Amino acid sequence: MQADERARLIRQYRDGHRAVVEALEGITDEELDRSADDDGWTPRQIAHHLADSEMNSAIRIRKLLAEPDALIQGYDEKAFAERLTSDRPIEPSLEAFRWARETCFQLLDRMTEADWRIVGTHSESGAYGTEEWLKIYAAHGHDHAAQIKRARGK
């Protein structure tokens, strides 16, 4: 990956929390629990999923950077969304999402060219490196912000 593309993805990554907060702005209790898209997730489930996912992503990038031949463990995000999100307030999860991203941004900002070439192994998908991590998580917040907007009819 070229440095300019990496810089663009890092900016997108950093902006993900803002996009989600903006998508949730003024949300009503009814909208919070209205199913989104064809997958049936509600904005409430999405908010909690983002916290779960970002906390996992924070560990993943740390493992890649700190552990030789890191094994990145997958998890059942659908089970998390179905079992752990039904009636909890979203604000703590939005803060977890925010701060997981901020701490990861601090790492991204300090990574060397050698760090960007690190590749470990994902338990479900095989080879998984720091660049792959960035590609996935740069889009993640924005993709879910769009999903929230669709659920709200916006």
Per-chain topology:
Elements: H1 3-24, H2 29-32, H3 43-66, E1 71-72, H4 77-83, H5 91-108, E2 119-122, E3 126-129, H6 130-151
Parallel strand pairs: 1-2
Antiparallel strand pairs: 2-3
Helix pairs in contact: 1-5, 1-6, 3-4, 3-5, 3-6
Which tags fit this structure?
154 residues, mainly alpha, Four Helix Bundle (Hemerythrin (Met), subunit A), 3-stranded mixed beta sheet
Summary of the model, kept short:
With 154 residues, this protein is mainly alpha-helical. It is built from six helices and three strands, in the order H-H-H-E-H-H-E-E-H. The protein has helices at 3-24, 29-32, 43-66, 77-83, 91-108, 130-151; strands at 71-72, 119-122, 126-129.
Describe this structure in words.
With 154 residues, this protein is mainly alpha-helical. It has one domain: dinb family like domain (Four Helix Bundle (Hemerythrin (Met), subunit A), Up-down Bundle), CATH 1.20.120.450. A 3-stranded mixed sheet has the order 1-2-3. Helix 1 runs parallel beside helix 6. The protein is globular, with a radius of gyration of 16 Å.
